[in-house]
Structures are given as structure tokens and as C-alpha cells.
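Protein 1 of 2
SEQ + STRUCT:
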Amino acid sequence: MKARSLARLSIAAVLVTLIGAASPASASKCEAVTVFNPITKVRWNCIFPITIGGVRVGSFDKLDKALDAQSASKPLCACRNGATFWFGVKVSFWSPNRMIDVVTEPGCMMGLGVDLLPTGGKLQGSQSSIADGTNSQKLFAQMHYYISPVWKMLDMFTDLPCIQDDGFDVAMMTEVMPTWQSATLGAIIQPEAVLFGNPAAGLACMADSAAAAAGTVIDPLFWCMGSWGATYPIAGDIHFSDSVEAWAGLAARGTFMMGRLGALTVSSADGCSFRAQPVWTKSRYKLQIMEPVKGGKCVNIGRPGALWSSGKHAPGKDNAQFMLFEKVICCAGISTP
């Protein structure tokens, strides 16, 4: 981890807490024993299926069908980066390279195993009932987004050109973002949210929810997160009936936000490079819950909690941690002089 980057985030967070307004606290105690261990915390079967030169290895997954087709249609590839040229075969797999905390205790850095920033009751998470006759509730929590290149941390597959060479770092703490604390402030810098806050856009999300339940997603509906709600407003409030599903929704919304901030990339279809992704392609991502209970499988964005969240909410533990898997398409080959 880059100490200088973390120090800047810590200082900024202190300044925000000095001026932030207190909110109703319903926070879980920050556990100092959850430091990230990639060997035991990552569900390694989530890297499958792997496609090598058009040949699939591993189980079939509806979420992979279109992406793996890109590897199978043209199994051979050739790339050029400046004066470097290489040719080989296309490889696609799921890579664990980002980690996300969703915490009701501000400053609880689960990936580091420390309570970095005791806030004295400010910026706390909260839960409240919604008096609309639906028995639904609203959750507010903070989000921490880590760059965590697991392959590099384990010194595996580092010779593949499509494995990102970033070091472990804290890329975002929402405690420093006033827009995460207030949907109204968020609408000022994300005015496009107005376009999706209408009944027609909401009805479109019903189709995305049905697709998510079937194990896939509808990428053009980028403002929808299936059964997890909507990506807008990009803030820490989310309606829920299932706490685990709400955690996943905030983790997914945080990923979408990183794209809007210009900090999200995805491998190109030819497997030669990474390109910026200001609007996410949902089918490129899936989540695995690691805390408070390790999940037995990865889930596509928006998958209904009834199909996977049972037994994942340990009593008294309201801080969650997820591993974000990204679908990588790579031209793995040999460089030429």
C-alpha cells in the first residue's frame, strides 16, 4: 500500500469529520481481526470458467456466454504497444483485483484490519423504517474501495500482459466525499440522475431484475442494479428488505461511482490493453462476500438476495467486505524482437 496516499486520505477524512453533521448511529463495532488474507478469503472457484484459445475450462455460467464468445470467435491474437509486438492466443478469466468495504462504522478499514478514524458519532451508518406500507427500510453506510491485485500479491501470472501491475492501495474512502453523505449534493455533480428518476426508467429495471435472477444482466440498463436497486443517486442511502443485499447494492454502486470518477478500467475486446470505463459494463463484474461470512459463490450484479444471501449476516455484525471479480480478456503470447 502506498503510505503517502493513505496519509492524504486520513487527513482529509479528519477534516470532514470536524465539519460533518451527526446522523443516527446504528453502527457495528469495527473488528480488528479482518485483515485481508487472499489465500483464505477469496473464493478461488470464482475465477472459472477460463477460456484458452476458444476452449472452455471450468463450469458454465450464463454471465460468461457473451464475453467468452469474444475469446472463442478469434482464438488467435496479435498486439502492439509502441515498439513492442506480441502474438499468441486469447485467454479470458475472472480476476480478483478490487476489494470493497461497506461499513456502518466510519473509518473501519476492514481490508487493513484497523479502525483508522474514530469519528465520535459523526458520519455513522444508520437504519430506519420507511412509512409507506411496504415494510421496507433504508440503510446508510460508508464505502471503501481498495486496489488489491491478488495475482500480484501472490506473485502469480505476473508475466501475462493483461494482469494489472498496480500495488495495493486505498483508492476511495467515502467519508471524504460530501456527495456520498447527501443525495441532494450528489445530484449537483451528477445531473444525469434526473433522467432516470422517473417511472419509465424504473419499469425498465424490472427487466434487469428478472435477468439478474436468471444469472445474467442487461448492460444497456446501466442505471439499474437488478434486485439491488438503482445506481442513482450515487450516495450511501439505499432501500432494502435484506441487509446483505443492501450491502451488495452499495458495493456495486461504489463500483459505478469509481467509473464516473474516471477510475474504472476494463480490458479491451482484443485482449491487448485496458480502456477507461466511465459507464460500467455490468456483465464484466461479479461480487463475492468475504465478511462477515465468507460466501460460497460469486454473484452477478443485482442477483436477488433470496438466492444467495441466506446465513451471510452474522448476529451483531453490520460491516461487510466484498471481493470484486472482473472479467479479463487477454492476449497471452510471446514478444518479438
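Protein 2 of 2
SEQ + STRUCT:
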Amino acid sequence: MQIYLDYSATTPPRSEAIAAMQAAMAEQWGNPSSLHQWGSRAATVLEQARSQVASLVNAPLDAIVFTAGGTEADNLAVIGAARRYRLPQHLIISAVEHSAVEQPAQQLEQMGWQVTRLPVDAQGRVSPTDLRLALRDNTALVSIIYGQSEVGTLQPIEVLGQIARDHGALFHTDAVQVAGRLPLDVQTLPVDLLSISSHKLYGPQGAGALYVRPGVELLPLLGGGGQEFGLRSGTQGLPALAGFGMAAALAATEMPHETLRLMSLRDRLFAQLADVTELVPSGDRRDRLPHHVSFCVTAADGDRVNGRTLVREMNLAGIGISAGSACHSGKPSPSPVLKAMGYGDRAARCGIRLTLGRHTTAADIDWTAMVLRQVLHRALSPLTLSPA
């Protein structure tokens, strides 16, 4: 039995998205910037994809800038906003940002920018009060992740974004894990910039988008032909964007039913493992991504059992999950996200994440819970010594 439970890492492309990509490669392969009929056909496909992605977040067409993925969208938001200034300013992020925001923030620090990393509570949530206190006269941008990919916590974006807006600072959110799973409406959300990724919502890898509120000025990261309203030069990867658009359109249609179904399966898995004392749920249990389950293994011997070893054991049983900690040089290191939430080094090496998707069934949940119990029992049992 093969069960994939790593949908926060990537999702399998939908057949409809693959068909849209194949059609773009075979029939609409022109350069969208060309004026002849081949370019015109390609431009039609491009703008249809833009319309489909824009509809997912209720944005104007000219507010959607296509990128090569969520990482580029985050970089364009953070670095593109910072490049407007001749002198270093102040940036606010959270302590649980994706590395696609954290690393650009580090780059800005090296250029003289002041960066404030807001702390989070034990559930991984940012306090609006902390944001208010952190704002300065020269705060240029606030960037807070919407749905945390490792522990599933949803941030109070409506409140945080309004605080930033009232102060006069731009507000960006990485909504990569949220788009296609929860409703997003940039007409009502107080956001200036919002990042999306195709391969998190059953589109192809290598495509993403940044919503840029009309009137917000960014400077591009790439010089070239001035595509994507001058913000992302380079001939657009039309097949990937066609697949992205199709996936976005289907996600918008199916979201009301699918979100409730995923929440039910998520809660079923949490309930079936509630009596496993070695598994402590991580992240906010109420304000949480609908498809996300995560734990820390508290009784583990960190030298023998950690998140990565559990991933390997579950994989041997035919179940794909992921570890919550990074790996450097083959050795597990404590998760910065779990550390920011107050976990010690050992516990922060023992995070696991199980994320559900459109192919996940109740039978998959039941089987996974049983197998995880067995894997934990074997992993945490005392080593048996052979008789002398």
C-alpha cells in the first residue's frame, strides 16, 4: 500500500493541468511577446492563465506577476520593495518565516538594513501587540507568513496587515500553503503583496505568482525584456503557466467541499493518535491549515531516533511523510521554527509532518495511524542485546 502524505512539499499535477501544458507545448509554443499569430496564440494562453490565477485571489489581471515559483515571488516582494530605497531602512518578519523570506532578510541585513524578527508563542503565532511595538518610522515592509508549512499554524493576517497598513508600511504575506486550500480575497485582506506557488495546488513545479496591489512600486530583480509589467524579465514559461492557471481554476471551484473534507481527515488523524503519549501535536490546533498534521516525538533518543529516521521508517512501510528539521551534511539539525516556538534542541530534531491532499482517503488515515504506532513502538523500544 502506497500512501503519499507530503502535500505541503509538493502536489501531484492534475491531469487537467498536464493536458493544458501539453496543449501549450504542442500548439501554443510561440513567444507571447511576438506580434504575429503564433505569438498572439501564446499570449492568449498566458492571459487566460493570468485570469485564472487572479480569480483565485480576486485580484485585477494586471496585479498578478508570474514568477518561477513561490521562492522567487517571496524574493521579489522583499528585495523588490527594499530596492526602492537608496539608504537602508527597517524590515519586520516573523521568527517562523520560510527560508525564501528569511534569507533575503539576511541579505538586507548585510547591506545595512535593520531587521526585526517577531517572536511567536508556543503555537507559532505572532502577537499583534508585538508587531505594533516593533514598528518604526522607517519600517518599509512587514512580511509575515500566512500558513506555516512546518507546523501548520495560521497567522492573524487580517489583524497584522491592518496594523502595518495603518502605520504606512507595506505588508507582504507568503500564502503558498494557503492558496487553493482556504479562500483568499486581496480586495478585503489588508495585503500589498502576496505569494503563490503552482505546485502546492496541483499545478506543475517551476511556476508561481506575486500579487502586487495596484499602486505599489517594486524594482525588478532581473534586467531584460521587461515582461510581466517590467517586474520579471524573461520569456514566460508558457506550458507551466498554463498548467498553473488550470490548477488554480479547479482549486477555486472545488475549495468549499475539499477544504471541509481535508479538515475532517486532519482531525481524524489527530484523534487516532491522541493517546500516543510520545507524539505531541505542534502548532495551533484551531487556527491551522486544513490539510496539516504535525508532531514532535518527545520520548525519542535524539541520537537514535529523530524526525528523519521516522521518515525513513515510514517510507519503508510505503508512506511518504516529512521531517520538520533541516539536514546539514547528513546530520539532523534542530528546526529553527520549533526552536522559535520554545522547543529544546532534542525535541526540535524530532518534528514530523503529515500533510493531506485530494487523493487522501479515510482508509489512508486509518492505515497511517496504525503504521506510525508500530514504527514508533519499534523505534522507541530499548535496544535488545544479544546473549554473550
